[in-house]
Amino acid sequence: MTRQRRFTKEFEDEAVRLVATSGRTQRAVADDLGVGLSTLVRWIGRRRDRLSQMPGEAPQADMAAELKRLRRENEILRQERDILKRATGFFRPGGKSMRFALVDQAKKEFPVHRLCQVLGVSQSGYFAWKDRPASRRQRDDMVMLAHVRSAFALSNGTYGSPRMTRELQDDGFAIGRRRTARLMRENGLRGRQKRRFKRTTDSEHSWPIAPNIIDQDFTATAPNQKWGVDISYVWTREGWLYLAVVIDLFSRRVVGWAVGDRLHRDLALAALRKALVMRRPPEGLIHHSDRGSQYCSVDYQAELRRHRIRISMSGKGNCYDNAMVETFFKTIKSELVWRTVFYTRAEAAQAIARYIDGFYNPVRRHSALDYISPAQFERTASR
């Protein structure tokens, strides 16, 4: 009895296999095997039921449906992930209107219903918000944002919220720093951050060293009382370009500067002589520098004494003694040099000239000067 049932099962399986592989009709196969058509159809049904219950051998149609379902779920998860990335800045204080703004901004990339679901708002609420006219504050924000973008571009992308706030206030807008910071943050406007830089001072020489008269007292009550000087460098594809500056500590104004391809005393002398011609300082001006060989050289010291200028030098290895000038170098590097690839020294020199004479001195707002430019600060002081 057992052998007969086993034979019948094997016979059924072979009959079903012939139907699947021979390409002949079920009736033709049934006639060849000597069984009824209804019996063969029943065997095929039993075979299909057994396969559906066996792990790892699901029918192709079921596997395709499962694969489609998994792909759909994966696409939904990807959309939700991308939506949450975009929404990072919109979950700050601002209510649902900020989330509706994100839905409106991202609806070309994601379905509206998916955006609303991920952000926790309703579709009806979004459409009601979209049809609602802008409030007075929103319209004011749009106007102020246009001025913020303009001022940000004119500052070469360097102004943060404090300087930007003062810029808008001087243009007649009643705006606080928090609102300015919010507008800049929401629109991706971020001022350049400063980085560290390497010094170029060579103090290993035998020339005499002057005492530190200033002693980190950088205050002055009028122009041409205290000058600070130093040298830094700019990298170009042609090699190093060195920049020497003379800064009036009263207004932070660059009163003399020079560039060259060699770190030599002639470079420092060129910047000093330019400052002397432009400012014609009175007797008693204090000239402060580090202990670099360029400033301790005989020629440079003789030029200072010829104009009856008092000489002051920093302590050995103390960068804070000349912090005012080093602050200028940090500023010009973060706002110009580190953002630009210079192919030639001439190209770098032209960019430095535009920055110093066209932006830093006449336009750039300094926090230490109550957010006005050096030129404006000197004009105010002379009244």
Condensed summary:
The protein is an alpha/beta fold and 383 residues long. The chain has helices at residues 2-21, 26-33, 37-53, 60-86, 96-106, 112-119, 123-131, 136-154, 161-170, 177-186, 265-279, 293-296, 298-306, 323-335, 345-360, 374-382; strands at residues 226-236, 239-248, 253-260, 286-289, 310-313.
Low-confidence stretches: 1-7, 195-200
Name the beta content range: 5-15%
Radius of gyration: 39 Å
Shape: elongated
Strand order of the largest sheet: 3-2-1-4-5
Separation of termini? 123 Å
Oligomer: single chain
- The helix/strand order is HHHHHHHHHHEEEHEHHEHHH
Structural class: alpha/beta
DSSP summary, beta strand count: 5
The biggest sheet amounts to: 5 strands, mixed
Mean pLDDT: 79
Number of helices: 16
Helix content: 40-55%
